[in-house]
Fold this sequence. Notes:
alpha+beta, CATH 2.40.50.860, 2 domains, five-stranded antiparallel β-sheet, 3 helices, 29% helix, 35% strand, elongated
Amino acid sequence: xxxxxxLRKGGIAMADESGKHINxxxxxxxVAIILFxxxxxxxxxxxxxxxxNFSQGERTGYVQKLSKxxxxxxxxxxxxxxxxxxxxxxEKFFFSIRDDNVAxxxxxxxxxxxxxxxxQHKGVPTTCFGDTxxxxxxxxxxx
Length: 143
């Protein structure tokens, strides 16, 4: 049933199929829940994939390329040539860097043989955090 007092106050009266009055605040609550739960789930999932790593390790070689790229989310993307012995065809290791300090240290070591410590994060939902699965967290000089 429509409540005349609600209409005079500028309120909107809604009814379900049985004719019962539906509370506006309850509808707003459900709309908020329907919007909030997927967004909160996406944020939680992203945080989990970036916090816990699938694997970690070290790779040694010569950094060939390091650049900051991206339209909105700028990330450091790099490429390292891993040479097992002189004259062999190098294998390329593609990586991302989220920390500007690590990227600056790698830039200072350009042309030298380095060892990068990386973490592999599987399932990151967007490339906004890096184009690869491998995120370099530290770098060391190899003598």
